[in-house]
């Protein structure tokens, strides 16, 4: 009768150790890089971002794409903005149900009750009308259902410049260099992180 020899402990551990190392290597490849350090405090003349981002997902042409785990309403959203801009600021946001944009540092020339009629005039001649809510700060906020995101931001993505006008005339103008990338990246952020 032949005696069967039990395998050594090292023989049993080798496949387990190999599998463990392979798993760790795979996890290290999939772990996102650490977020860059938070920017220095903004000067008083520049409106501060209302929420701290959960993570910065990309930057190009001075546009920054941020994911925020919870907004004021507790729901996640993504934001595209140019943090280095002084004065009036154009900020795009996208969430699972609602998306839109905010004009910070911009308000109507005359006090108004209710929504303000806001017109965007693009350098290619296109004109788009929006209903904006007037908020303290001052700022104007335009909101629309996320299902209409592509239709609502299309003109911003292909133009080079936009001027916003209210009932009293011109309110602010913005350089749109890089908005095609920014708005596509914002929509991708929304799909991946904030829901469909």
Short overview:
With 196 residues, the protein is α+β, with helices and mostly antiparallel strands. The chain has a domain at 55-116 and 134-157 and 178-194. It has helices at 9-30, 149-158, 179-194, and strands spanning 55-60, 63-68, 77-81, 89-95, 98-104, 116-122, 127-135, 139-145, 161-166, 169-175.
Could you give the topology of this structure?
Layout: H1 9-30, E1 55-60, E2 63-68, E3 77-81, E4 89-95, E5 98-104, E6 116-122, E7 127-135, E8 139-145, H2 149-158, E9 161-166, E10 169-175, H3 179-194
Antiparallel strand pairs: 1-2, 2-3, 3-4, 4-5, 5-8, 6-7, 6-9, 7-8, 9-10
Please report the total strand number as a whole number: 10
Helices and strands, in order, run as HEEEEEEEEHEEH
Query: Which residue ranges are poorly predicted, with pLDDT under 50 across at least 5 consecutive positions?
Result: 6-50
By secondary-structure content and strand pairing, the structural class works out as alpha+beta
Q: What fraction, in percent, of the residue positions are helical?
A: 10-25%
Distance between the termini: 68 Å
Strand content bin: 25-35%
Main sheet makeup: 10 strands, antiparallel
Shape: globular
Mean pLDDT: 78
Q: How many DSSP H or I helices?
A: 3
Q: If you compute it from the alpha carbons, what radius of gyration comes out, rounded to the nearest whole angstrom?
A: 24 Å
Strand order of the largest sheet: 1-2-3-4-5-8-7-6-9-10
């Amino acid at each position: 009768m032949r005696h069967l020899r039990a395998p050594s402990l090292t023989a049993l551990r080798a496949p387990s150790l190999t599998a463990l190392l392979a798993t760790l290597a795979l996890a290290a490849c999939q772990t996102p890089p650490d977020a860059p350090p938070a920017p220095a405090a903004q000067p008083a003349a520049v409106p501060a971002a209302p929420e701290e981002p959960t993570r910065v997902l990309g930057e190009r042409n001075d546009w920054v794409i941020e994911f925020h785990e919870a907004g004021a309403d507790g729901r996640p959203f993504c934001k595209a903005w140019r943090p280095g801009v002084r004065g009036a600021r154009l900020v795009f946001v996208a969430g699972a149900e609602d998306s839109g944009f905010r004009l910070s540092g911009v308000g109507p020339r005359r006090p108004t009750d209710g929504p303000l009629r806001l017109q965007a005039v693009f350098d290619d001649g296109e004109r788009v009308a929006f209903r904006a809510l007037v908020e303290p700060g001052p700022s104007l906020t335009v909101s629309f259902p996320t299902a209409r995101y592509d239709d609502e931001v299309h003109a911003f993505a292909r133009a080079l410049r936009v001027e916003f006008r209210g009932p009293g005339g011109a309110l602010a103008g913005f350089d749109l260099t890089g908005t095609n990338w920014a708005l596509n990246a914002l929509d991708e952020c929304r799909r991946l992180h904030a829901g469909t």
